[in-house]
Amino acid sequence: MTKVSVIVPAYNAEKTIKRCLDSIMNQTFDDYEVIVINDGSTDNTKDLLDMYKDPRLHIINKKNGGIGAARNDGIKASCGDYITFVDSDDYVDKKILESFYNFAAKNSLEVVTSSYKKVINGKVVDWPSTKYKLGNIKTSPKIIFSIEYAPWAKMFKRDLLINHDIKFVENKKYEDIPFVCKALLYSKLTGYLKDAHYYYVVHKKSETTTMDERVFDILDALKMIKNDYQKEYYLKDEINYLLIDKTTNYMLQQRVQKNRKIRKRFINEGYKFLNENVKNWKSNKYYKETNKLKRFIKNHKLILKGYCKVYGLFR
After folding, report:
1. Integer Cα distance of 99 and 96 in angstroms
2. Burial bucket for residue 53 (CB in 10 Å: 0-12, 13-18, 19+)
3. What is the dihedral of CA 77, 135, 149, 21, to 10 degrees?
4. Three-state SS for 226?
5. 114/112 Cα distance (integer angstroms)
6. What residue spans define the domains of the chain?
7. What separation, in Å, do the N-terminal and C-terminal C-alpha atoms of the chain show?
8. At what angle do helices 217-228 and 176-186 cross, to 10 degrees?
9. Fold of 2-202
10. How confident is the model at residue 74 (pLDDT cuts 50, 70, 90)?
11. Is pLDDT of 297 > 90?
């Protein structure tokens, strides 16, 4: 056993993998392993990985299967007490593992979430995140809709993932949302670390900002979350708000959708999803506390469609 396993999925990452790995291998913490899953890269990623001779670094070369499958392979290969994830185009501060592990071990945490920094056009920006006290979704139910759902800038107890069969969805976009939500569901104690040691590099055409047919995968991801939480009646308002917030925000994002047919179809499917899965969704107590103008647009299909259409014309 080692204390921490760092999992790095990499696909055609020749431009960023060295910066990423150098930041991970230069830690103030000394008991960790790094597992890089080379997910069928067709560029020079493999050659760059082969240059590293550090015994802490383990490389898995496989056929391309997507980021969800790559992360799952990393979990299977890991032996750390805790697991954390770093994307190959991002990088971390040298104190991230020390801070994460010490905080988790001191408080017997099963999940750690933290603030992070965004790197936009080379400029580092502190990114605000929701703070909360040590607890779980029973004692602090707002956690479920207050955090970022990416697996990075977080640490998970490995036993939590293995014992509850918590895996990433494969061959789907938004694979990280059900994973993080399920981890929160079973975590006995979750904590927030205010120190921002993770640097998330924003790209104009990144996986998270590309608008195409895969946007419909968000509805499947939300259905998985609803299914996982269906017995947690005490969280009804919170889970419903998570479904409302994600669905309406993605409908609103269709303003940048270039394909008019996809835009129209997704908005229709979004309203259908809400009407079928969240009873009286417009009356949710958390939703009613959101921005009035945005809520007015979201509440009316024709107005939202018109807004997206006009916005697209003047982009």
Report:
1. 5
2. exposed
3. -40
4. helix
5. 7
6. 2-202, 213-313
7. 53
8. 10
9. Spore Coat Polysaccharide Biosynthesis Protein SpsA; Chain A (3.90.550)
10. very high
11. yes
